[in-house]
Amino acid sequence: MKILIINPPAIDGIGFVREGRCEQRTASFQYLMVPISLPSIAAVVREGGHDVRIIDCIAEETDVDGLAAIFKEYQPDLALFNFSTVTFYGDSEVTHTLREISDAHFTAIGVHVTTMAQDTLERSALDSIVRREPEMTALALADALQADNPLSGVEGITFRSEEGIIANPDRPLVEDLDSLPFPARDLIKNELYVAPLSDKPQTLVVTSRGCPYACVYCTAHRYYGKRPRMRSATNIVDEIQECVERYGITEITMWSDTFTIDRETVLAVCDEIERRDLSFNWMCNSRVDTVDLEMLKRMKQTGCMVMSYGVESGVQEILDNIKKGTTIEQIRQAFLWTREAGIESMAHIVLGLPGESLETIEATKKLVRQIKPDYVQFYAAVPFPGTEFYRMAREEGWLITNDWSRFEINQAIISTPLLSAEQLEAARKEAFNKFYLRPSYMWQKATEIRSFEDARRLFRGGIDFLRSWVMSS
After folding, report:
1. What is the per-residue pLDDT for 30?
2. Which residues have CB under 8 Å from 204's CB, separation 6+?
């Protein structure tokens, strides 16, 4: 069976990252993230005996007409689309356009379609939805279609039938992540995915799946479940070595909701990197309550350049409201340790969470100044479908729109008695300006310039970042 796996075209010229719970504009920090689920699915279905191609319309700058031409040339039997909330309407329209020229079975993956499966089928030209973790369900769907078996036997899908829309039982999650083949990076154009500000090829290496935390705004558990499933250190570094030696990729993100959730695995990965004498730069996502100075120093020794922390707020009451499970003191300590270890830090701040006011935003900005991150992102709180925050926002009447295309983390779409959407927009822009336009910060970045190329990249990255995140809403 011929399978075409698609990251759909940009909507109105704006490209978006679609990878699990991560949805953001591609211009932020010049970060065109690999949609790693696509080559991961491709590797599994190819190992299952199917012919497969990947087209990332965002990275390859392919529009709908270009994608239609690929359909006509390849004539797939199964087309798998990567959907997200903010791109939902555009992604759906793409399926309607392609349906006019193709009789392939159309299916889709993603957090949004997992949560809103029936609504998605009603609004699109899709034939089915692959819910949750996609690899083994995509293979089972392809096998069933090839054998002309009834789709009622495929766990993990919702599909159209003569009886209406049918939701089959969930498929059990993959217990042994080491059993999955490495993503089929030979089917994507790795040179198009570059690290922030460096212009060097960059990729994601998935180190674990599943998030046990209860943050009310997060969709992570909708896709990979709540129980952490870890890859072995040897398996993780085997994939890293393939990236470095086969593909020449030396900028890697350890892709996990919390890379540091298992200290022993982190240290084992560091030991394995050192044992193999691999040279590359890497970064990871983390929580402030899962790090310590010894571990951070070990990570630095093996090439860790940036720690990305979900700080969310500088007010303990708000952290408690969102069930973050962290404290202000843990935030302070994590950034102090990270700086002491010689690793750059990024703080992710979400403004507008339950309990937010202009006063609490000022307290958060004060904390950001105190912890001194190298970079910071100020997001607008968005209640994505399937989250406790979404239920709360609907029940309280906070949502000012039901337009999915506005469910974007650089737009305010809720108004509460404590904080209007207009106040949140203004506060967010002011927070960006006061952090990045400080003379001390600009001087610090200027001192890091070593060449004209450094200056060019920094200037271009700054302009793109401000245009995308600060002035776009």
Report:
1. 47
2. 19, 33, 34, 36, 252, 253, 255
Q: Which two tokens stand for residue 34?
A: 């690999």
pLDDT given at position 461 = 53
- Neighbouring-strand partners of residue 378: 349
- Please measure the distance between the N-terminal and C-terminal CA atoms of the chain and give it in whole angstroms: 43
Separation of alpha carbons 142 and 140, rounded Å: 5
Are 90 and 81 contacting, i.e. CB atoms less than 8 angstroms apart? no
173's enclosing H/E stretch is none
- Number of C-alpha atoms within 13 angstroms, CB side, residue 265? 19
Neighbours of 22 (CB within 10 A): 18
What's the rounded Cα separation, in Å, for the pair 25 and 204? 17
Secondary structure in 3-state letters for 296-351: HHHHHHCCEEEEEEEEECCCHHHHHHCCCCCCHHHHHHHHHHHHHHCCEEEEEEEE
Give the burial string for 283-309 (b: 16+ CB within 10 Å, else e): bbbbbbbbbeeebbbbbbebbbbbbbb
Structural tokens at position 3: 């399978």
The number of CA neighbours under 13 Å toward the Cβ of 240 is 30
Hey, how many other C-beta atoms are within 10 angstroms of the C-beta on 144?
Answer: 17
> Cα–Cα distance between 40 and 260 in angstroms, integer?
22
Q: Which residues of the chain have pLDDT under 50?
A: 28-30, 459, 463, 468-473
Burial (0-12, 13-18, 19+ Cβ within 10 Å), 253 = buried
Q: Above pLDDT 70, what percent of the chain?
A: 92
pLDDT on residue 448: 62
pLDDT at 27: 59
Strands 157-161 and 164-167: antiparallel
Query: CA-based diameter of the chain, in Å?
Result: 66
The pLDDT value recorded for residue 439 is 74
Q: How many CA atoms lie within 13 A of 282 on its CB side?
A: 31
Contact 279, 252 (CB under 8 A): no
Q: What is the DSSP letter of 254?
A: E
The runs of H, that is alpha helices, within 116-191 are: 117-123, 135-147
Q: Which residues, 6+ apart, have CB-to-CB distance to 394 below 8 Å?
A: 383
Q: What is the DSSP letter of 233?
A: H
pLDDT of residue 458: 54
Residues present in the chain in total = 473
User: Token digits for 53?
Assistant: 């191609």
Sheet hosting strand 2-7, strand order edge to edge: 51-56, 2-7, 78-82, 105-109, 128-130, 157-161, 164-167
